[in-house]
Amino acid sequence: MHLGLEIGKKTPVHDWSTVVKSLLQSILGAISMVMLVVHTLFISLFVFSSIIWKVMLPQRLRHKWADPYVIGVANVWLAGILWWLTNVLRIRFDVDNNVKLSMEEWYMVVSNHQSWVDIFALFYVTKGKIPLLKFFIKKELMKVPVVGQAWWAMDYPFMSRHSRAYLAKHPEKADDDLKATKKACEKFSYVPTSIVNFLEGTRFTEVKQQKQKAPYAHLLRPKAGGIAFAIQALGERFSSMIDTTIVYQDRAPTFWDLACGRVGTVTLRLRHIEIPQQFIRMDYQNNRQDKKDFQQWLHELWLEKDALITQMKAGTSSV
After folding, report:
1. Which pLDDT score, from 0 to 100, does residue 161 have?
2. CA 124 to chain centre
3. Residue 91: which of 312, 256, 262 has the closest Cα?
4. d(Cα 214, Cα 196) in Å, to the nearest integer?
5. Cα 13 from Cα 16, distance rounded (Å)
6. I want to staple 146 with a disulfide (CB 3.0 to 4.6 A). Which of 44, 126, 183, 186 is the partner?
7. Would you say the C-alpha torsion 37, 152, 141, 115 has a positive or negative sign?
8. Mean pLDDT of 282-301
9. 73 touches 43 (CB < 8 A)
């Protein structure tokens, strides 16, 4: 057998600068995760003391004494996280906000959803300008150490999110989320509150978009139920709805990308949306026309947001 040698074939050369950069980013990611755990464990001492205080106080004194303490602890935790994101991980937040904000008002904040980074981006743009954001949380996350208990102490609403298959077998559970929303909103009515709703209900992916056959280029279909119930329960108290649009430079970053400092610039655009009076007084659950009109209203808002994302990605947005 004749063995020939390929003459002139170049041997692949490793891009050592890329390898070193990737290694340094991974080291930074590990350090970031450790610092997050240490920071959270330190704050947990104050979280659990606030929980004990909240449980021991009578109901009428919780909102006056315990809740401000819990919010204060949460703000300290959040300030540490945001400092690390901006000063160590060098995330740049490009914010265009023409919305007048106040700590003395109630707000409904809606946003598109692509990544865990969305949550920190929303905190960054609203911290100290409106009441601390409160999210609708999956009930299973209540078991997360420290964080789950902190969410409970801050009266975050925990939702069951039953599947259609489960509800088919247990129809009596269909109103669980509605009851949870109403119960949470009763607590929110005492002091100014900001409620966040990721209307898509899950993080955007192209696979989910194709499965839904969503009529948008960058978004999933908005889910109307949760926000409808919140508006019904607290509509008269909302001074406005803040529509937030979030866009990343390339792709939506993972949590590990965040820890490694691979996020870059996060672009946010905020706008004020008036909630029509007809929806504040609607009966979303029982009135078909109310339900249809509200869903159409959200669809039109989502079409506008989709067009804005296209402009932002092209670098031509002007809000």
Report:
1. 63
2. 12
3. 262
4. 22
5. 9
6. 44
7. negative
8. 92
9. yes
Mean of the pLDDT values across residues 232-258? 86
What confidence category does residue 1 fall into, taking pLDDT thresholds of 50, 70 and 90?
A: very low
* 2/66 Cα distance (integer angstroms): 85
As a dihedral over the C-alpha atoms of residue 56, residue 58, residue 59, residue 61, rounded to 10 degrees, the angle is: -100
Q: What average pLDDT does this structure show over 255-267? A: 95
User: What secondary structure letter does DSSP report for 319?
Assistant: -
Q: What is the pLDDT of residue 258?
A: 95
The CB-based long-range contact list for 230-234 (8 Å cut-off, 24+ gap) reads 230/108, 230/181, 230/185, 230/195, 230/197, 231/108, 231/275, 231/279, 231/280, 231/282, 232/280, 232/282, 232/283, 232/284, 233/181, 233/182, 233/185, 233/186, 234/106, 234/185, 234/188, 234/189, 234/193, 234/195
Euclidean distance between CA atoms 264 and 261, whole angstroms: 7
Return phi, psi of residue 311, to 5°: -65, -45
Amino acid residing at 120: F
Query: What are the tens digits of pLDDT across the range 175-223?
Result: 666 676 777 777 777 788 898 999 998 899 999 999 999 999 999 999 9
User: For strand 194-198 and strand 106-111, is the pairing parallel, antiparallel, or unpaired?
Assistant: parallel
Helix (H, G, I), strand (E, B) or coil at 17: helix
Chain CA centroid to CA 263, Å: 16
Of the candidate CATH numbers 3.40.1130, 3.30.420, 3.30.200, 2.20.28, the domain formed by 92-314 belongs to 3.40.1130
